[in-house]
Amino acid sequence: MKLIRTTSYEELSQQAAAEIISRIQSNHRLNLGLATGSTPTGVYKQLIEDHKKNKTSYKEINTFNLDEYIGIAKKDPHSYHYFMCENLFHHIDIPLDQTHIPDGTAKDLKEECLRYEQFIQEHGGIDLQILGIGQNGHIGFNEPGTPFDSRTHIIMLAESTRKANSRFFDSLEEVPKQAITMGIASIMASMEIFLLVSGTSKAEALARLMNGAVSEQFPASVLKKHPNVTIFADNEAAALL
Ligand code: F6R
Q1: If phi over 0 gives left and psi between -120 and 50 gives alpha, with beta otherwise, what is residue 226?
Q2: What domains lie within the chain, and their CATH numbers?
Q3: What pLDDT is attached to residue 115?
Q4: Cα 115 to Cα 176: distance, rounded to the nearest angstrom
Q5: pLDDT tens for residues 104-117?
Q6: Active-site residue 165, yes or no?
Q7: CB neighbours (10 Å) of residue 151?
Q8: Which atom of ligand 1 is closest in space to residue 202's alpha carbon?
C-alpha cells in the first residue's frame, strides 16, 4: 500500500481527483467504482470543477457504486442514488444509464445482489475503486466479521455505523438497518484502489490499518493483500502514524 499524506482535506481531494482524472484521460472507457459518505465529496467537487474548466468527459465512463440502503427509494434524498446525482452525476456529462448502484428496493434482494455482481463482471470489472473507511474498519458496508471471500451481499449495519450515518437523517430510528454492499472479494477484484481517509475520527482506524494484522475483524486490513492500493490521508487522519 502506498501512503500519500496531505496537509489538508482540500489537498487530499485535489491530489486524489488529479489521479482519477489522469486515469480517465488514459482510458476514456474506465470502469470507476464510487463511494458515498462525507470523505469523497471533496474529490467529487474537484472532478466537477475540472469537467467545467477542462472538459474532461465522462461520456464513455461506467460507474459502479459500492452500496445502497435497503428499503429507501431512489428518489428519497437519503438514498445513495440521490446522493450521487446531487454530488456528481448531475454536474458532469455522464449518461445516467451508465451509472450503476445496487437497487435497495428490489423485490428479490438476493437476486439483486447476484445481478449486480454479475453485471460488474460482464462490464469487465472495475478499473479503479474509490473507498472510504468506517471507524470500525468497514469498507463498502462490509462490517467487521464479513468473510474476505464475500461477493455482493445483504448486510446488517453495525450500530456504530448507523449512529455515524444518523447525521444524514432526522433521527437514529430512521437510519436503515440493512444495506446491499459489494463484498470484500468484489472490491479486491478491482485493478486499482484509492482509499480516502480524512479527519481525527479516522486516525485510529488508519493506524490500525497500517500497523495491525490482516483480519476479518478489521475489514480494511484485507487491502494489504492487494497489489495496487494508494491511501490518501490528511494530517489529522495520519496523526497516530
Ligand atoms: C460509502 C461506504 C462507506 C463509507 C464509510 C466512511 O459508500 O461504502 O464505507 O466510505 O462509512 O464514510 P464517511 O466518508 O462519511 O466517513
Answers
A1: beta
A2: 2-198+213-232 (3.40.50.1360)
A3: 98
A4: 22
A5: 999 999 999 999 99
A6: no
A7: 19
A8: 16
